[in-house]
Amino acid sequence: MPAAPAAVRPRFAGTESRQLYRLDLKEGPTGLGDPDAPNIAVVVDVETTGLDRKRDVIIELAMRQFRYDDAARVTNIGQSFTWLQDPGRPLTEEIMKLTGLDDDMLRGRSIDKEMAARILRRADLIVAHNASFDRPRVEDEIPDAAGGAWGCSCVEIPWRHFGFDGRSLGYLLSQAGYYNGAHRAAADVDSTIALLAHEVGPGRTAMAEMVARSSQESWMCRAVGTAYERKDDLKARGYRWDAEDRIWCREVADRDEEQAWLMMNVYSPWARPTSAAPEWRKLTARERWA
Questions:
Q1: pTM of the model
Q2: Residues 49, 57: contact at Cβ < 8 Å?
Q3: Is-contact 73 41, C-beta < 8 A?
């Protein structure tokens, strides 16, 4: 939607206002800490033809490297890389409106997978704002980059705890004092870096929160063999339905506590399970979000 002229006040505007700055993420040292800090992160974003992992494909891939010090301050921002890719079929009207891409822009284009893999393999941590969506698609497209450590800036930073409302990228960015005009992969990458660099407490960045949380081990619980009647209990507990495997899953930090709850509420004989216990898989940043 076009911006209103500066002189026109919104109909229901109050007496107070807030200024937002257009995000301009420049390449080079940020002026914080050592620009040659040893830790390297790469932020990634993709645009796709749809949400189906098996059927839909990447049409835009963007990534940008930055260095961060041991306090997780962003000290040096690298070059922005963007590739377009021809999906081999026309885009839908919905996808064209969402991404700003069209068939002419994509025709004959392809991702430099060798270069993209080199960038990703150099990273100590790969970050996406929706890592559960981006990671599987990036690793499907670029298998040579699979197996890296990933973090999710949407989930692994407790935004509400720090006074933010919501978790959508654009809304978080505006609460940090910026706006970004385009919904394109490269713009979303820059928005994510700006949020990671934002101080959520005195001397502590959002990046520090994500690094701390992504480095912790956790457990993926797969509640196999649960009765249909237990679905509301599982949902209220925080489990999500995996439609592909047709199973309720939840990532937890404390396996013993979760096992005790499940054995009492889901795997007790009165609950009529068809399995004796859930399945467990240990997760680190190298397995999480895959």
A1: 0.90
A2: yes
A3: no
C-beta of residue 241 within 8 angstroms of C-beta of residue 226: no
Distance CA 176, CA 89 (A): 39
The amino acid that residue 120 corresponds to is L
Regarding whether 165 and 36 lie in a shared domain, the answer is: yes
Calpha distance 40→232 (Å, rounded): 42
Find the CATH number of the domain harbouring 63: 3.30.420.10
Pairing relationship of beta strands 74-84 and 178-179 according to DSSP bridges = unpaired
Same domain, 166 and 63: yes
Give yes or no for a contact between 28 and 76, defined as CB atoms under 8 angstroms apart.
Answer: yes
Q: Do 177 and 73 have their domain in common?
A: yes
Of the residues 182, 214, 246, the one at which a domain ends = 214
Task: Tell me, yes or no, whether 195 and 257 share the same domain.
Answer: no
The parent domain of residue 39 ranges over: 21-214
78 and 203 housed in the same domain? yes
The answer to whether residues 218 and 251 touch, using CB atoms and an 8 Å cutoff, is yes
Q: What is the pLDDT of residues 147-199, one digit of tens each?
A: 999 999 999 999 999 999 999 999 999 999 999 976 799 999 999 999 999 99
DSSP codes of every residue in 156-193: SS-GGGGT-----HHHHHHHTTEE----SHHHHHHHHH
Show Cβ contacts of residue 80 under 8 Å, excluding neighbours closer than 6 positions.
27, 62, 63, 64, 186, 189, 190
